[in-house]
Amino acid sequence: MSTENSLITEVAADVLSGVDPQAPAGALHPLWPTLVELGWPQVGVDEARGGVGGTLRDLTELVAATAASGVSVPLAEASVARWILGAELESAPLVVAATSPDAVPWARFASHVLVCPERGSAHLVERGEVEPGENLAGEPRDALLLTGTTTPLPDAPPHEDVLARSALLNAAALLGAARGANERTREHVAQREQFGRPLIALKAVANALAEMRVHLEATETAVARAVRVHEQEPERALVATAAAKITAARAATSIARSAHQLHGAMGVTREHPLHHVTRKLWAWRDECGTERNWSVRLGRIALGADEPELWERTTA
Question: What gap in Å lies between CA 116 and CA 124, rounded to an integer?
């Protein structure tokens, strides 16, 4: 990790340390105004466009760190909206980006939603009425009823670019939640004793931890590569994003399962902090496209490539 990213990680750790993941009912988490004041949603956007500078890698580290803490905030969605609209968002309290008006993250708290559909042009929608919904983690996923004012955005990036960035940040969030689950599980089995010795001393437990670590390392690698491709070879971003999203979704399933197996009955209680990350793993793995959706998309891209291009993509 570079010095710059080490600093980002340290700053994130300081901000998130000791924060209670539980948000008040019907409100954004109290930490959100602090993150906005620190400029986190503007990271990865040039200062000339209303951002605070930094790189996409910096942003993914912040998204991952927030997810690892168990805190739920609209960081990824607000950052995508900032990336699209830049300085035009200066006066808006909260704008989130979505690729569909259905199940829009955090819509009930937003003043506007930036919708970039698969077909048709992007548009900025005044929130108006919403049909409330939630994902498995209890986070708002509301349907827009499109009763508010709609403004076309002909200069917005195409749907695929928005989807690629959103899915990459989703993969980074899955990575962070996986880190959180892994860390909590290692602490638990190191402290919990059975038959007079720590659980971690049992071979089956050690093997399960090793498997969790393998999935975590694979996701770390896939997300890091996708970030590099986004920054250096944007024309290949969709392929790298697909690989990262597929890897992260598979890891989410395995790591959440192992974490709860190793915690036993204690891990399923509402009072235990584990659910703040595992429920996110279950929910986020199916958002911004499911593992199957991205696998099909990646397969179609591979079928459309000639032999040299396919070899280059699969061995890069």
Answer: 9
Question: Over 80: is that where the pLDDT of 16 sits?
Answer: yes
Specify the range with the lowest mean pLDDT, choosing from 110-124, 167-181, 244-258. Answer: 110-124
| CB-CB neighbours of 255 under 10 Å | 28
- Cβ 113 vs Cβ 125: under 8 Å: yes
Name the 3-class secondary structure at 135: coil
Average pLDDT over residues 184-201: 89
Domains of the chain (ranges plus CATH)? 3-152 (1.10.540), 159-315 (1.20.140.10)
The two beta strands, 104-105 and 95-98, are unpaired
pLDDT at position 268 is 64
> What's the pLDDT tens digit per position in 269-308?
666 789 999 999 999 999 999 999 999 999 998 888 776 7
Question: CB–CB of 259/278 below 8 Å?
Answer: yes
112-115 vs 123-126, strand pairing mode: antiparallel
What is the Cα–Cα distance from 15 to 3, expressed in whole angstroms?
Answer: 19
Distances (CA, A) of 241 to 104, 141, 150, 222: 21, 23, 30, 8
C-alpha–C-alpha distance, residues 9 and 12, integer Å = 5
Question: Shortest CA distance to 160 belongs to which of 124, 200, 116, 128?
Answer: 116
Tokens of 27: 């409100």
- Average pLDDT estimate for 87-108: 85
Q: Please enumerate in sequence order all residues whose Cβ is within 8 A of that of 84, keeping only pairs 6 or more positions apart, or say none.
A: 97, 114, 116, 122, 153, 156, 157, 162
Whether the per-residue pLDDT at 68 is higher than 80: the answer is yes
What is the rounded end-to-end Cα distance, in angstroms, of the chain?
Answer: 20
Please tell me whether the overall predicted TM-score, pTM, comes out greater than 0.90 for this model: yes
Compute φ and ψ for 235, nearest 5 degrees.
-65, -15
Higher pLDDT pick, 159 / 273:
159
